[in-house]
Amino acid sequence: MKVTIKINGKVQSVEIEPGEMLLETLRRLGYKGVKHACSTASCGACSVQIDGKPVLSCTTFTAAVDGHEVMTIEGFSDENSLSDIQKALIEEGGSQCGFCIPGLVVTSEALLRENPNPTRQEVIDYLKGNLCRCTGYESQTLAILKVAKERQSK
Amino acid sequence: MLNVKAYLKPDTVQSAYEMGQIPGSLYVSGGLMVAQLKISNVERIVDLKSVGLTHIEDHSDVFKIGANVKISDLISNPYLANLNGDLLKNSIKEIGSTQIRNMATLGGSIAFKLGWSDIITIFMILDSNLEIYDGEFSKISLQEYVKKSPKGVIITEIEVPKSGGIAVFEKFAKSNFDIATLNLGLKVVLDGQIVKDACVVVGSRPMVSQRIKEVEEFLIGKQLNGITKDACDLMERVVQVGSDIRASAEYRKALSRFLLDKALRRV
Ligand SMILES: Cc1cc2nc3c(=O)[nH]c(=O)nc-3n(C[C@H](O)[C@H](O)[C@H](O)COP(=O)(O)OP(=O)(O)OC[C@H]3O[C@@H](n4cnc5c(N)ncnc54)[C@H](O)[C@@H]3O)c2cc1C
Fold first, then answer.
1. Residues enclosing ligand 1, CB less than 6 A?
2. Number of domains chain B contains
3. Residue A27: which CATH number?
């Protein structure tokens, strides 16, 4: 079957299997920043935004996204420069192996849009579905709070 | 990947139901659970989201919530969120993660009848009724629905009465992003300090949520102050729990008294 999805601002017509998951579709189209990990909606590495809301692409039927707008990590930065969240994660030591970072950034972008000035607890609550197995959450939380402050002062 | 032959998007409840009656069909709403099913006999997925059902209506005596409303959207209506002492506002954040709440629908969460569902416990405390479609529309209480296994039926709407009282939800899980080892809901209607009406629900027993009538009857007519210990003793005696990979029945019994104690102190 054929679906039309706006991915990172570009409308694409894609041939898919009826039972295909968005994660497979996106990776096949070259959006490799969307990570394939647990496939059980448990880790957050495959997070993307659909119509501005963070969701898990491993358990989203691509057919259900027909006519909607998807944002992957590739849509939040370009090949030559990092986004402010990515920079802050590096500066605060919030990234080691880096596997969870694309999902974390995509979810954090939604958090800061919905709540530009979150408290520490609100950051922790919002990001609890983005698991990280090497850095721990302290430095990631600090990075998001730092970006919130910087964006507020602009 | 589910090896299905077709992904159907009906535009009315009636046509969705007709498609759902064909052997090998499966409804999907949020899709979180359907996406993970390892069954080979599903040939057709019938997407219920295309029929709408995303309304939250505020009527004089009830809230009517469309079955396709996402868990995260349940708190978008402040009146609904603040019902019975902010029950939904305080409890929805206990469910899964941001992403899961943005995907899971209220209808899908009830229809799957997960033993560990927090949603079923929460909506049972609210004394909710369901509108269902099985060729015609009818109503059934949530309590009755979870006891039965109506096949092929579509949940179209959840009705939450605007009854008075304060309700609280307690969940015990091993981490803040884990399913419940046990969950408990309590609603009391007070006349001064006297309990006029009570509703007590325990879920993740690990069986599906159940009202604990004995504890409700015990609470009614009593002064709220000073009855906690006896109510908790009774809860531990009467609650029907089982053992699974998460906890033994003994552990769950002990938890039930602990969660009731906490809930009684909060109301
Ligand atoms: C990792 C993870 C963590 C979770 N944590 C929690 C938690 O902490 N607390 C909690 O309460 N829940 C939790 N859930 C469950 C979640 O909240 C939903 O209950 C679940 O995803 C089902 O909702 P859905 O909309 O995705 O349903 P779907 O997967 O679309 O459907 C589920 C079932 O219901 C049927 N169905 C769907 N809609 C209808 C309808 N309107 N009428 C009739 N049948 C229908 C489908 O055919 C299917 O059998 C968790 C789920 C996951 C994957």
1. A 41-42; B 26-34, 48, 67, 71, 95-96, 100, 103-105, 107-109, 111-112, 117-119, 154-155, 179
2. 3
3. 3.10.20.30
Q: Say yes or no: B138 and B66 in one domain.
A: yes
Q: B195 near B219, Cβ under 8 Å?
A: yes
Whether B173 and B146 share a structural domain:
no
Provide the pLDDT confidence category of residue A77 given band limits of 50, 70 and 90.
Answer: confident
pLDDT digits (tens, 9 = 90+) for B161-197: 999 999 999 999 998 789 999 999 999 999 999 999 9
The alpha carbon of residue A99 is apart from the nearest alpha carbon of chain B, in Å, by: 18
Same-domain pairing of A71 and A91: no
Residue A123's closest chain B neighbor by CA?
B98
| pLDDT average, residue stretch B129-158 | 94
Domain with B22, as residue range(s), is 6-49
**How close A35 comes to chain B (CA, Å)?**
15
- Supply the mean pLDDT for chain B: 95
What residues have CB less than 8 Å from A95, skipping those under 6 apart?
A: A89, A101, A135
Domain containing residue B63: CATH number: 3.30.465.10
Residues B63, B81: Cα–Cα separation, whole Å: 11
Residues A72 and A123 placed together within one structural domain of the fold: no
**Any B CB within 8 A of A61 CB:** yes
pLDDT tens digits, one per residue of B71-106: 999 998 999 999 999 999 999 999 999 999 999 999
Residue B246 lies in a domain: yes
Q: Which of B161, B178, B198 is the last residue of a domain?
A: B161
pTM of this structure: 0.96
Instruction: Calculate the alpha carbon distances from B191 to A48, B168, B217, B223, B224 in Å.
Output: 49, 18, 16, 9, 10
Residues B141 and B79 in one domain: yes
Domain range spanning residue A23?
Answer: 2-76
What is the length of chain B?
267
The answer, yes or no, to whether residue B40 has pLDDT greater than 80, is: no
Cα B263 to Cα A19: distance, rounded to the nearest angstrom: 43
Helix (H, G, I), strand (E, B) or coil at B29: coil
